[in-house]
Amino acid sequence: MTSGADRTAADAECLADFERAAAAVLPPDIRDFVAGGSGDEVTPAANRAAFDRTFLVPRVLRDVSRCTTDATLLGRPAALPLAVAPVAYHRLVSEEGELATARAAKAAGVPFAVSTLSSVPIEEITAVGGAVWFQLYWLRDGTRTLELARRAEDAGCEALMLTVDVPWMGRRLRDIRNRFTLPAEVRAANIDAGGTAHIPPAGASAVAAHTSEAFSPALTWTTVDRLRKHTRLPLVLKGVLAREDALRAAESGVDALVVSNHGGRQLDGAVPSLDALAELAPALDGRCELLLDGGVRSGTDVLRALALGAAGVLVGRPVIWGLAAAGEAGVRRVFELLAAELGSSLGLAGCADVTEARSLRTVR
């Protein structure tokens, strides 16, 4: 018998269908927590607009009878040039939370970047068996942070992704107006069992209060060097937009960068991620791998990012919408749609694979 979740997933023909379906089932404060940005939300809109103003110049008279979306990310094979972006608290939208996402990512053959603020312990997620990266926030207790990094390594994670753009959480007005607080059954399973994220604040977001209490605002290049020496895993810095920072990261031996403005959830008015990618890729000239997140909503968007120099993209909100609307089946369908759209766009652009996509010209 076909379940309601399966029907919802099967009926979706683009990622926007899942956003609408999720909006219909989520409580307004949780929907706002996922969808919202900081300040006036200029940057989330700009992320999307940057894709819409990036046009591809397709090639013709090429044999595209066999197109493949296979890719290599951080030195390992993936079925698509994408990974699940680190998003906190998947159990806000689905009882199984990150476990359902992990199973769907494994089935799709793509890595899952698990957040420090995952609502399921990292060991349970890696036990699913797919490729897992661990996103690390630098805590006020540096020793504890290094212990968390080692714990992720021991659990079988294949990379560490240090987020560098959150000295504290941006002013997310939707959460402040909603006095957003985590439900009692949802917690940051990797770092605590409760705390301020569950205490309704006076005129603020409980999640913002929790991160201000937990995260260090003193993260520096010295810290990056300390982490580099501590782990054998590939090290990725997430949240780099400036050319100067990207060049210094490459010189420091970082393996990859995620060109990211945190989905418009940190500095409102920050440059769109895609525009930053267009500047950083030629400046770095292959010295470290570039990934991108922020605003990816279709396979054609993935192709645009590849053409501008990315090895792949991270997809965040669409995965959460799929999980909210239809659980694991919804996330699987998100990946199916992205694969179908990317495969079609590759062929129509005259590219038989993602390597050829990186030679496409763009008009912006």
Outline:
The protein is of the alpha/beta class and 364 residues long. It is built from 15 helices and 12 strands.
Describe the structure.
It is a single chain. By secondary structure, the chain is of the alpha/beta class. The chain has a single domain (about 5-364), classed as TIM Barrel. Helices cover about 45% and strands about 15% of the residues. The chain has 15 helices and twelve strands. The chain has an eight-stranded parallel beta sheet with strand order 4-11-10-9-8-7-6-5. A two-stranded antiparallel sheet has the order 1-12. The longest helix is centred in the last third of the chain and has 32 residues, at about 315-350.
The CATH class name reads Alpha Beta
What global shape is seen? globular
Strand content: 5-15%
Order of helices and strands: HHHHEEEEHEHEHEHHHEHEHEHEHHE
CATH architecture: Alpha-Beta Barrel
> What's the structural domain tally?
1
Radius of gyration equals: 19 Å
Give the low-confidence spans: none
Helical stretch count? 15
Largest sheet: 8 strands, parallel
**Share in helix:** 40-55%
Task: Tally the beta strands.
Answer: 12
Q: Please state the structural category.
A: alpha/beta
Superfamily (CATH H level) name = Aldolase class I
CA distance, first residue to last residue: 48 Å
Keywords: Flavoprotein, FMN, Oxidoreductase
Family: Belongs to the FMN-dependent alpha-hydroxy acid dehydrogenase family.
InterPro entries: Aldolase_TIM, Alpha-hydoxy_acid_DH_FMN, FMN-dep_DH, FMN_HAD, FMN_hydac_DH_AS
Pfam family, one: FMN_dh
